[in-house]
Here is the input.
Amino acid sequence: MMRFFGLVSALTLVLLGSMAAASAADDIKLSNNQRISCGRGLTAGKLQNINCKSYAYIFNSRTSEFYRCQLNVAVTRDNKEVLKVDTDGGCTLKARIFAEDSSYAFDATETEPPNTNAFFGSGGTAIWVSDTTTLKARGCMIINVGIAPDVLKCVDMTFGK
Here is the structure.
């Protein structure tokens, strides 16, 4: 009988732990603004290289912390077949937008990589976070300046009539 109660107690603890994990998982949201960019190039021997990069943001809607995630896929091919495929990726913690915990909505977008039309160099990221429990929003910009760490500046939005 004691084994049964021990088993029930252990099962209850596991269930409570998984419910807490499920609740915490509900706080994690994927931004709606993923992007992909690809480039192609020719190398000696008529090989073609195709490189694609995509990124997304993962947001904690309770703490306002966010991660930037990036996926890279590179393909080398000739006229007949794919010769090699390389992949890598990962997520990096970027910042916390509000100091206090609440319930937040989030989205982010980035400028495209440098090209002939990019006069901001490697560009930056725009992040918008709003509190879903009260009329409060913050707009942030991360600028890659190239000579120092990225600059992150946020502005609290005012709501006029």
